[in-house]
Amino acid sequence: MKVRLERIAHARSGDKGDASNVGLIADSPELYELLRAQATAERVKEHFREVCRGPVERFEVPNLRAFNFLLHDSLGGGGTESLKTDAQGKTHAQGLLQMEIEVPEAVLAAHSSNRGQHDDPENPGRSREPQEPGRR
After folding, report:
1. 3: buried, middle or exposed (CB in 10 Å: 19+, 13-18, 0-12)?
2. Are 125 and 119 in contact (CB under 8 A)?
3. Is the pTM of this model over 0.85?
């Protein structure tokens, strides 16, 4: 099933001169692998075709389940030169989260039931139940 990235990941963006820098963080290891296969530099370039005039580079950060995308020539010269409304690329994270990828329904169902819960460090892969204040 096609879903927007906002359902399965988080993002943050900013600028590096005339390049927009967009971080994409998967919500789970399974989703990271789906993003690795489908959130390619080419797909991101196509998604930002109206904004990004240069190439898109993708860097993998597997220990964080993340990717960093550099969208070259996307800020109209950068913060000090550009006449664009968003000369620092702050909205590009939200823009990337609108991109759709294919996610198997079983993976999406498992993810949806766990979204918003924090991992339990004593039991990796399991979520910690909320505790009363002052109790562990």
Report:
1. middle
2. yes
3. no
